[in-house]
Amino acid sequence: MSTGLTNPKVLIVGAGPAGLVLALxxxxxxxxVHVVEKSVHPRIGQRRPSLMPRSLEIFDFFGLSxxxxxxxxxxxxxNLYEMPEGVEVMMEFEMSPHIDPTPACPYLDLLxxxxxxxxxxxxxxxxxxYGTEVSFGVELESFDQSADHVVVQLLNHSTEAKVVERxxxxxxxxxxxxxxxxxxxxxLGLSFLGKTAEENFVKWHMWGELGQVLVxxxxxxxxxxxxxxxGGSKFTNHEEVCSSEESLKAFxxxxxxxxxxxxxxxxICYNHYRVNIRMLEKFGVERVFVVxxxxxxxxxxxxxxxxxxIQDSFNLGWKLALVLKGLAPPSLLDTYNDERHPVVAEMLxxxxxxxxxxxxxxxxxxxxxxxxxxxxxxxxxxxxxVVDEAKxxxxxxxxxxxxxxxxxxx
Length: 410
Known about the structure:
Keywords: FAD, Flavoprotein, Oxidoreductase. Residues 9-349 form the FAD-binding domain. 31% of the residues lie in helices and 23% in strands. The chain has a 6-stranded mixed beta sheet. A 3-stranded antiparallel beta sheet has the order 3-7-4. A 3-stranded antiparallel beta sheet has the order 9-10-11. It is of the alpha+beta class and 410 residues long. It has 2 domains: 10-76 and 109-195 and 276-376, FAD/NAD(P)-binding domain; 379-410, no CATH class. The chain has 11 helices and 22 strands. It is globular, with a radius of gyration of 22 Å. It starts with 9 loop residues before the first strand and ends with a helix.
């Protein structure tokens, strides 16, 4: 399990966008990390393809915006077809109309890039710039915290290991970016607050409606690959439908008006997703923190989940780097929860409202995206570590010298 750097101080569990962005944040500040991923191989599939303007600003900070823009594409127009024939276009509309960039806001469009493609770009940056590779097939089994370090038990399922190996390692901090079924969260004893919605997962709209059965086909950044989406309140036999390629093809044909001009040559991957709307009451305990889906789970409406996780990691990364370098006290890490928790709570309310609108409203109203989801309005002006220039002092009575160090590393 090579990390590329000796004596990594931070273990990052999970190699999705949130985990990889956190790794880049720490490595950029000279903090060695070890990134482990339970899956033996990188996952494939679109999963969550939406990239918001604020995420693009973060990627620009890492020098990755050009590589991402070269692969990503704008959300294409949506055609809603008249049923039951499924041939005549009943309505055409833009989910997210183009907005010209400005010097202050160079990224304003909603872009789409499959998560597997984004992960490849981030992993390549880790390897090429910092000599750090993800340890695939390595699973966190458990951990124990002490005053100055965390002892972890790892299981190595990688293809190089002929038998499962149990390894004990020591780190100063552990970060869980291991998704909705997070082992880190469970080991911390933190529970999700929220609900599981009755609606099935939906990413796109072309035939049908969410109140019944919906079938969507969305073009991706790969010209010969489409994102095939099934959903709707009446779509309850998903296990039967997805039991074989033949049943999937038959379902697509039936619910797109029995058209003969649409066919699927091969299914690459399949994911079933139920809408969970949950968040933790706090995002960390002592030396262990959680980011992304390990801390909060969103409705897919609005494409906020992955982007919110990226912001979690960006917020935590520079603070953790300052603490590990001795440039800030460990209490700085408390502001990760203080700042991100209310932002995530507000975003959950927004995306839940969007999901409800998609189910009960007309298609164009439910699917249109407005500026409030681009995340450019997220700020922490009220934070205890932010200087209020009008008052000339740090909110909460913090010392200005501490704020100087923080500001220098933003």
